[in-house]
Write a structure and sequence with these properties.
Blueprint: E1 8-12, H1 17-29, E2 34-36, H2 47-59, E3 65-70, H3 74-80, E4 88-90, H4 94-102, E5 108-112, H5 118-130, H6 137-143
Parallel strand pairs: 1-2, 1-3, 3-5, 4-5
Helix pairs in contact: 1-5, 2-3, 4-5
The chain binds D-ribose (RB5).
D-ribose binds next to helix 3.
């Protein structure tokens, strides 16, 4: 059950554009407002441009959470995690998606569009949206991020 309806910003490069469109539809169907930061087609683009848009919006608090996609998910997670207060988690399996919320309070879910199929991608987003942060000892660990 997805209880948290906080709006989401989503972005991808060309490699994951079709998957972005599928996930946008799924997220909207959950009653969650979704803003698309692009890309808007299959033409080749540079993933940092879209990673920066989404990560910046989360970093400054314009959006509380986001989803990023590229071919592997690697480039987007590298870009996103350069921004203060961003905890971007590359999750191509369900256990990681769950734990990234429960233990790491991830605020950006990153997926590799060339590694996973549509059904798994939807399940990953669903799991990520359903799982609350556990807090407690995990918050104390996250607090240590800010001294870096
Ligand atoms: C694009 O070809 C590809 O490099 C990109 O989608 C991503 O996988 C980068 O990490």
């Amino acid at each position: 059950m997805i209880e948290n309806k906080t709006p989401i910003i989503i972005g991808s490069d060309h490699a994951a554009f079709p998957l972005k469109e599928i996930l946008k539809k799924f997220i909207a169907e959950q009653g969650i407002e979704i803003q698309d930061a692009g890309t808007f087609g299959l033409s080749s683009v540079n993933y940092p441009e879209y990673g920066i848009k989404v990560a910046k919006a989360v970093s400054v608090g314009e959006f509380k959470r986001g989803v990023l996609l590229c071919g592997t998910g690697l480039g987007m997670s590298m870009v996103a995690n350069r921004f203060p207060h961003v905890r971007a988690a590359l999750c191509n399996d369900l256990f990681s998606a769950k734990m990234s919320r429960e233990h790491n309070d991830s605020n950006i879910l990153v997926l590799g569009g060339r590694l996973i199929g549509e059904t798994l991608a939807v399940e990953l987003v669903k799991t990520w949206l359903e799982t609350p942060f556990a807090g407690g000892r995990h918050q104390a660990r996250l607090d240590q991020f800010d001294v870096i």
